[in-house]
Amino acid sequence: QSYCHRLQHDMYFLTSTSRLNEQVVDKIVLQLNRVYPQILTNEEAEKFRNPKASLHTRLSDLLKHLQKKGDRHCQEFYRALQINAEQLFNDLPSRKMLKTPDPTEIDTDKEQYMLNDRGPVFFLACFSVAAGLALFWYCCNSETQVIGRARRILGFSPIIIGRHVRNICMLYLEDISRN
Hints:
It is a single-pass membrane protein. The protein has a domain at 3-97: Death Domain, Fas (Orthogonal Bundle), CATH 1.10.533.10. The protein contains eleven helices and no strands. Helix content is 73%, strand content 0%. It has 179 residues and is mainly alpha-helical. Helix 1 (3-15) packs antiparallel against helix 4 (55-69). The radius of gyration is 37 Å and the shape is rod-shaped.
């Protein structure tokens, strides 16, 4: 977001009652007049420091003038505001928008909880149903030899299940094949 757009967004906040006093506005105008490159000419600085005009009018005119001049001028205004009124600078609406995350962005922590809100029991139940259906379909198929294939699968799975469990399963399969 450009500084001009930010300044346009912050204009109401800055010009509302008693946000900036005359001394701070004068310091900002003087800094914009003396900074390199010179943002405000001497005539413009005198115009925006004129005590005959109300503070609200001077500040509104200054902000409109800076927006017409371009992004660099608006950036220098923000720098002067930060130096002369840091608390107000930190309270600007555009600063708060920069600090808050993008509302369209996915919060991964929140998404993680949304996906796992049912807990591990639900996962185990779904997995058990899926494994049971797969085993039932595999066993009911008359073209396959269940015992031979199961022995090969269990023989190559010492990593997946422990050695003792594998030995028990192998003994069980051998016992079933003899009967």
